[in-house]
Specification:
Layout (H helix, E strand, L loop, with lengths): L17 E4 L3 H18 L13 E2 L11 H19 L6 E12 L5 E4 L6 E8 L7 E4 L25 E4 L5 E6 L4 E3 L8 E12 L24 H7 L5
Antiparallel strand pairs: 1-8, 2-3, 3-10, 4-9, 5-8, 5-10, 6-7, 6-9
The structure holds fe (ii) ion (FE2).
């Protein structure tokens, strides 16, 4: 006699990566690339600390320039809409703060493994992507799985539960948003042209407060936000209801 098993399956701590296309991106891209070129002429050295050490990156101050307004408005719309609803954040007393910066990666250019510690939501938007200019790799945050010796995967059948990272091919006009703590890198640009992308960090600051976002190093996992949760918030994050 066989007895059917009543098997339960609880999927814990999912990591959601949101994707979206910027409407009218062809015209917006021309405007944004022109603004980035101007910024590179004005500040050719860029910031000393950056994830693409061999290439140019702007200062994290593009968010208020008119050229980037449509992109910034879409980012806010997504964070304060579907993403806020997904996490059930209480945003009644919060206001979004964004910092935005641009990247030109020439042939051979890459972004080393890093995260955006202190940023609630981070993301990237693609203005110009020559063929083979480098995929973004999002690394599996379940780092301890790497200490186990697991059996090989069945061909290409690895999924998000078993792979160490997921590679996404960039597309012009498309953006991805993900938790700021999620480690990621960009493969070397194997084309003969520049890859142009725009990155952003979003925090939800108490109304009237200044933003405190800093990018971090994925290896150290350092956070520079300095923000502390209240006891009630910590208990809520632990799933404790009383
Ligand atoms: Fe990044």
């Amino acid at each position: 006699m066989s007895t059917a098993l009543k098997l339960s399956k609880l999927e814990l701590w999912p990591t959601v990566v949101w994707g979206c296309e910027l409407p009218d991106h062809v015209s917006h891209n021309a405007t944004m690339i022109e603004a980035l070129e101007q910024e590179r002429l004005r500040d050719p050295a860029g910031p000393p600390e950056r994830s693409n050490p061999n290439d140019w990156q702007s200062r994290k101050s593009l968010q208020d320039l008119p050229a980037f307004r449509p992109l910034m408005e879409l980012v806010v719309q997504l964070v304060m809409g579907p993403i806020q609803q997904h996490y059930r954040w209480d945003t009644r007393d919060r206001t979004p703060k964004i910092e935005c910066f641009g990247n030109f990666n020439g042939p051979g250019g890459f972004h080393r493994l890093h995260n955006h510690a202190g940023s609630l939501v981070s993301g990237v938007y693609y203005c110009h992507v020559p063929e083979n200019c480098g995929n973004i790799r999002l690394h599996n945050p379940h780092k301890l799985m790497q200490v186990n010796v697991e059996p090989p995967l069945m061909g290409d059948a690895g999924n998000a539960a078993s792979v160490f990272y997921t590679s996404i091919q960039p597309q012009v006009g498309r953006m991805y948003l993900f938790p700021g703590w999620l480690a990621h890198e960009v493969e070397p640009n194997r084309s003969n042209a520049e890859r142009v992308s725009i990155a952003f960090n979003v925090s939800l600051a108490p109304k009237g407060a200044a933003s405190g976002i800093r990018s971090g190093d994925a290896q150290s996992g350092a956070s520079s936000s300095g923000k502390r949760l209240s006891r009630r918030e910590r208990r809520a994050r632990r799933g404790e209801t009383s």
